[in-house]
Specification:
The chain folds into two domains: 189 residues, Dipeptide-binding Protein, Domain 1 (Dipeptide-binding Protein, domain 1, Alpha-Beta Complex), CATH 3.90.76.10; 236 residues, Dipeptide-binding Protein, domain 3, CATH 3.10.105.10. Helices cover 33% and strands 20% of the residues. The protein contains 19 helices and 21 strands. Strand 4 and strand 5 form a beta hairpin. It is globular. The two termini are 43 Å apart.
């Protein structure tokens, strides 16, 4: 009897501990997150928006991921960091044996190879990501969850490009295993493929491109993250629910990305300033991720809200810009901005200091060119900031041959035998008051210099589409980077012009060579030297009117006592909140 009683007590204690563990593992029923813009896709390969990128992290997983607190890589689907060969060309990963897709299928080395082939498949709409993987030569699936990823040359980005891509289910996207028949070498030259092999690539790419464009095209069976998609109403909300079958629940919390403390994550699209104010005053949001700077200053000064919310403004790895299409004529646009003197003149027409105060209330710092945000020592401080100077702008335009020949108040010039007036279109995404203000100020000042600019606000998807096609003259935008994305290739290499992220068509043979050398160089001092030269090239060619680097305006309800905010994008991992 004593033994039986002891066993019963032990069983009761075990049951109690299990229940307590379940309660501790999930302490918040629902978090409401305010977002100023919608996602374009819930697809880690084809998504283009910053909001979509971080929401995808809750649904999909990679071998490693950047820890939001430390900026260092931590294992997710891999058991640990890879074994790297002495020549730093081969990275060997071992998959976590417990890892599964939500379909119940075990994640295998073949899924890793398949996913890397998708990244390198030119028919998949991911040119903004694909350029990072040019250094990857092949991936080979081994036994017992071993996968070997080989580079064709050493890369300072080796750890990132061999680990930080979403692992997708081969069974889901390629049940016929068609991509297994196509080598990585063949993927580099799809034009040389036979009609049959090309058809195989097209079939798989079509499935991937169609995935996650809306709720009906999303399937949780293809994912392996700690949360599942429950609802998605375009331009309204996205709801994720905790994945009770998540394979990571069985092995405990390895790092923040295994935490599932919140049962439901509801992302609400709230772009109208009045509705943003109302949502915060009424307490209907627990977190607003990127509050417009004017609202941040206004609301953070109200005692009632100070009692309910914490206002954070950590540094953000992003910057704002006005892009000038250097190769617009190739896309049926104006050829005006092909001349560097004209681009430099346009830069002198923007009073960046004034806009920084009006748009960001001083929350930011001017920059002369893009530099690696997490490597401030790599910034070229010798580059002068472009001064607001209408007289200088007029002088440069006159040097470039622009004058008001017919007295109508607009500059004109003869180009290829035709008189062309200096007329441009400036686009930005709608419901962004800050960008509207920048556009209006540019339009007003440019008119003083004899330049006519029409301003057009576009829906997000149309705005992104036109940027990628090069179908614009001027475009107001922003770039956000991850801490381990230490490369200039995505935005500035010519390979990414026309469908990729080099929207403005920047670059020449010299700049491409510098960018490639930067990625291939491991020595820190040499990389710094190359980085300074890349920035000088940007300054010389003036593809952007560089505005400022931002701070991140985040508002968090005080009742979320363990709401950790970090400097690394996007500044939090909601699953660990309590």
């Amino acid at each position: 009897m004593i033994k039986l009683a002891t066993i019963r007590e032990m069983l009761s204690l075990i049951l109690l501990c299990s229940l307590l563990g379940m309660l501790n593992a999930q302490q918040i029923d629902r978090l409401v997150i305010g977002e100023s813009s919608d996602v374009d896709k819930l697809n880690p390969l084809t998504n283009f928006s910053a909001t979509g990128s971080y929401i995808n992290e809750y649904l999909f997983s990679s071998l490693l991921r950047t820890d939001k607190a430390t900026g260092k890589f931590v294992p997710i689907l891999a058991e640990g960091l890879p074994k790297i060969s002495e020549d730093e060309l081969t990275y060997n990963y071992v998959l976590n044996s417990a890892a599964k897709f939500n379909s119940g299928k075990k994640i295998t080395a073949e899924d890793v190879v398949f996913s890397l082939k998708l990244v390198k498949n030119h028919l998949v709409n991911n040119s903004q990501k694909r350029i990072h993987y040019t250094a990857v030569r092949e991936a080979v699936a081994g036994e017992n969850g071993n996968v070997e990823i080989k580079l064709r040359k050493q890369s300072a980005q080796g750890l990132r490009i061999t680990s930080d891509f979403a692992i997708l289910s081969e069974d889901f996207f390629d049940p016929e295993k068609k991509l297994r028949e196509i080598s990585f070498t063949e993927l580099e030259n799809v034009n040389a493929l036979s009609a049959e092999r090309l058809a195989s690539l097209q079939l798989v790419a079509a499935r991937v491109n169609a995935f996650g464009t809306g709720r009906k095209t999303f399937n949780n069976d293809a994912t392996c993250g700690p949360y599942l998609l429950s609802e998605w109403t375009v331009n309204q909300k996205i709801v994720l629910v905790v994945n009770k079958k998540f394979w990571g629940r069985k092995i405990g919390k390895q790092n923040m990305f295994f935490a599932q403390n919140v049962a439901n994550l509801e992302f609400q699209v709230i772009s109208d300033p009045k509705k943003i104010r109302t949502s915060i005053f009424q307490g209907s949001v627990d977190l607003f991720t990127s509050l417009p700077a004017d609202l941040y200053f206004e609301l953070s000064d109200i005692p009632k809200l100070q009692n309910s919310y914490i206002f954070h403004s950590p540094p953000q790895n992003s910057y704002d810009y006005i892009g000038m299409n250097m190769r617009g004529e190739e896309r049926g646009r104006s050829a005006v901005l092909a001349d560097v003197k004209v681009r430099k003149a346009m830069a002198h027409l923007v009073d960046v200091e004034l806009l920084l105060e009006r748009v960001r209330f001083g929350l930011g710092e001017r920059i002369a060119a893009e530099y690696p945000s997490y490597r401030p020592g790599f910034r070229n401080t010798d580059l002068e900031l472009v001064a607001y100077d209408i007289a200088k702008a007029k002088e440069l335009l006159a040097q470039a041959g622009w004058k008001d020949g017919n007295g109508n108040g607009l500059l004109d010039k003869e180009i290829k035998g035709e008189t062309v007036e200096f007329v441009l279109e400036c686009i930005y995404n709608e419901n962004t008051a800050a960008r509207a203000l920048i556009a209006e100020e540019l339009q007003k000042v440019a008119r003083e210099a004899g330049v006519l600019i029409s301003v057009v606000a576009l829906p997000w998807k149309e705005y992104i589409s036109r940027l990628q096609k090069g179908d614009f003259d001027l475009a107001i935008g922003a770039w956000v980077s991850d801490p381990n994305e230490d490369t200039y290739a995505q935005i500035w290499h010519r390979k990414n012009w026309g469908g990729g992220s080099n929207f403005v068509g920047f670059g020449d043979a010299e700049s491409d060579a510098l960018i490639e050398a930067y990625d291939a160089t491991l020595d820190e001092e040499n990389r710094k030297s190359i980085s300074l030269k890349v920035q000088k090239k940007m300054w010389d060619l003036q593809p952007y009117i560089f505005l400022w680097v931002n701070t991140h305006c985040i508002v968090v309800r005080k009742s979320n006592e363990a709401a950790n905010i970090y400097n690394y994008r996007p500044g939090f991992w909601l699953g660990e909140w309590k």
